[in-house]
Amino acid sequence: MTATPKAPQVHGIFDPATWTVTYVVHQGPGTACAIIDSVLDYDPKSGRTRHNTADKVVAYVRANDLKVEWILETHAHADHLSAAPYLKAQLGGKTAIGDHITAVQKVFKGIFNLEPEFKLDGSQFDHLFKEDDAVRVGEMVGKILFVPGHTPACVAYQFGDAVFVGDTLFMPDVGTARCDFPGGDAKTLYASTRKILSLAPQTRLFMCHDYPPAGREIAFETTVAEQRARNIHVHDGVTEEEFVAMRTQRDATLEMPVLILPAVQINIRAGELPPKEANGIAYAKIPLNAL
Prior knowledge:
The protein has one domain: Ribonuclease Z/Hydroxyacylglutathione hydrolase-like (Metallo-beta-lactamase, Chain A). It has seven helices and 14 strands. It is of the alpha/beta class. Helix 3 (101-112) links the parallel strand 7 and strand 8 (127-129). The strands form three sheets. A six-stranded mixed beta sheet has the order 1-2-3-6-7-8, with helices on one face. It is globular and about 55 Å long. The model has no long low-confidence stretch (mean pLDDT 96).
């Protein structure tokens, strides 16, 4: 008789500075794991980076004797910097993202006028996933779900009954991600939300962020059934036309994320800082009147 695979265990580490959740998914102490959407602490006033949040991930992995096989990104985040290079140096593993990251790199190389040597092939990452690819973590075999709309390169990671949705969905009382970044598209996002919400009702969905309304505690796990019943933007019955109209109107009122300019140009490098200049210092560019 074939043994039933163990259900994925999910540990979330919330960063209040960026409202981001980093996940470690595994099958118990002593097993393999993947880290999803890590955070490098960054002070926009001083330009200084720290590893306080990433060190919580390191501590959890070591305390549970986990073996890191993958350090995964759901997309090139605009609201926080990735700690992938630091975690890889501390814990091992391979960095990966969806293969449409090349489209994002092409757009932002132009916006930031990056160095000619910056490649547009995604080779900054150890691996690029295609839609429906399998991702093996020990005995777990996950699946790549292509869910563009927030950005053209967004993917979700499905391990058993657990799906890590990135910015495609938020908690039901928050709704969905914006679509006004370069390459974003509300019609495409609507289709991506329906792809996720077509999964089994009991499927666990893990958010990359939570921006709770006043009076609610931080929460970042829900289910397909809860989203279909209560998501304020895409509950069952909301049409594509209604969603696009809502998203377009709402996005026009939103300010840019505080960290978008340093975050994107570093995250399209798989979290590596830009090359140091002649004085030994790395610089993040601030394009004026470009976004």
